[in-house]
Amino acid sequence: MPGLADEFHRPLDAAARLAREWLDAVPERRIAPTVGIDAVKDALGRELADEGLDATAVVEALSAAVEPGLIAMQSPRFFGWVIGGTAPAPLAADWLVTSWDQNAALREVTPGVNAAEELAAEWICDLLGLPGGTVAGFTTGATTANLVALAAARHAVLERVGWDDAVDGIQGAPRIRVFAGDEHHPSVDVALRWLGLGRPIDVASDDQGRILPSALAAALGESRAGGGGGDGADGGDGPAIVCLQAGNIHSGASDPFEECVAIAHEAGAWVHVDGAFGLWAAASGRLRHLVAGVDQADSWATDAHKTLNVPYDAGIVAVADPAPLVAAMTMHAAYLPAAETGVDASDRVLELSRRARGVPTYAALRTLGRSGVAALVDGLAASATAIADGLRGLDGVEVLNDVVFTQVCAAFAGRDVAAIARALDDDGIALAHPSTWRGRDVLRFSVSNRGTDAAAVDATIDAVRRVLAG
């Protein structure tokens, strides 16, 4: 009878072989799936059989059934969303994390993976120029990172007016006024909704989606003047949170942090920055000016999957003052050994049961080094500029945004943008998704893959040219 170790060998060997075959094919693979969900369910088998199958057979059948329904998000010509490819070291590290099967909640219990995660968090804070003492944690994604940061914000601003939401909840608490630019990402709305804070007050932005400092000052002032009372119950001088943005999803532009953070802090507000991809401009000496002053905020959310090309899950939350973060996230039980020093991972994020998802980010950073991260960020921005230049050379194509980072929004005179996107899918070489921005139908190209080089840019422009000529 095979030992416990032996029974892993064949299915893992099969998985490694199938993974290599997939990765080898991605660069030239048709990007869109070739079958729909019903066909995949049919191939997988819709009924759970009475008898089980051999593990290796399951792995091989799973791959055969699922692969036709996969979208090649790792392709260097995938521009549909802000989704990076997968780099070799973090992918391999992710396999190790799964094999080690550590619950990484408590640093004293699993020091190996916690050490790697904590180093990765410290390096990220350093690369992004965040204040000394900032604590960061790894979440499932940027949406959850926003949620965790805003939970810390909620606790902090309520504590300032004498209310402890950790003990008393938020029913009956002073109303928290939340402000965000009128082009903020909907993940902020979801996080606020989960926290019981409702939709934020929209603040006007400029033609690139950057919040206007004068509009923010006016909104904060009007809200304060309209409240009365002073305890915030009617929305007056009570607690406030301002959500700023690093990287508009359409233009790539970032809010003017130096002015806006000063205005918000003057009004007593906590400042959170949703920087899922745009925050990484801070790691580049050439692009750091795009996010000048972002370090003056109170909390930040970003995602290593997008820019660092780390496998899912790779969200990152960072908070300058650890106290409100720990107060919002911590849990205690007699059977759980609390850290004698430092902050447990479970006190930085939502989960108690959590995989060591920060380890692949460590591997990515260790592979790249400081200069490699900067070169990666610069390369993504340069590829976006090259795509914009190529699109401008096509008849009837107008690039609507100032291409300052990794986003390109193109309009097509007299053409159905959704039809162009479908035709690109059918062509198979490049993929971009339609959207609407500032009243115009656009095709949005989001450059996030480390493999998007000059050849990938040329192939993309050629694909768009073919579609427009068809």
TrEMBL record:
Keywords: Aminotransferase, Decarboxylase, Lyase, Pyridoxal phosphate, Transferase. Pfam families: Pyridoxal_deC. InterPro entries: Aromatic_deC, PyrdxlP-dep_de-COase, PyrdxlP-dep_Trfase, PyrdxlP-dep_Trfase_major, PyrdxlP-dep_Trfase_small. Coiled coil: none annotated. Its cofactor is pyridoxal 5'-phosphate. Gene3D superfamilies: Aspartate Aminotransferase, domain 1 (3.90.1150.10), dopa decarboxylase, N-terminal domain (1.20.1340.10), Type I PLP-dependent aspartate aminotransferase-like (Major domain) (3.40.640.10). Signal peptide: none annotated. Belongs to the group II decarboxylase family. This is Aminotransferase class V-fold PLP-dependent enzyme. It comes from Agromyces allii.
